[in-house]
Amino acid sequence: MDSLDDPNRVWPTGLTIKESEALHKHVIDGARIFFAISLFAHLLAYMYSPWLK
């Protein structure tokens, strides 16, 4: 059976629902990690050069 004809795969990605949910989880986790790192970097920048004081 051709993967394009598979009813469990969703257009346009070709992923199944379970695969797309797993990918979405990784994207959200990555965004949370990026947010935490950027928050820490901004805190350090504020501590060493307080631009609002």
Automatic annotation (TrEMBL):
Any single Pfam family the record assigns to this protein: LHC
Residue stretches making up the Antenna complex alpha/beta subunit domain: 23-52
Gene Ontology molecular function terms on file: bacteriochlorophyll binding; metal ion binding
Binding site for a bacteriochlorophyll: 24, 42
Keywords noted in UniProt: Antenna complex, Bacteriochlorophyll, Cell membrane, Chlorophyll, Chromophore, Light-harvesting polypeptide, Magnesium, Membrane, Metal-binding, Transmembrane, Transmembrane helix
Transmembrane segments: 33-51
Subcellular location: Cell inner membrane
SUPFAM superfamilies: Light-harvesting complex subunits
GO BP annotations listed: photosynthesis, light reaction
Annotated membrane topology: Single-pass type II membrane protein
Stored Gene3D superfamilies: 1.20.5.250
GO CC terms of this entry: plasma membrane; plasma membrane light-harvesting complex
Function of the molecule: Antenna complexes are light-harvesting systems, which transfer the excitation energy to the reaction centers.
Protein family (similarity comment): Belongs to the antenna complex beta subunit family.
Protein name: Light-harvesting protein B-800-850 beta chain
Biological source species: Phreatobacter oligotrophus
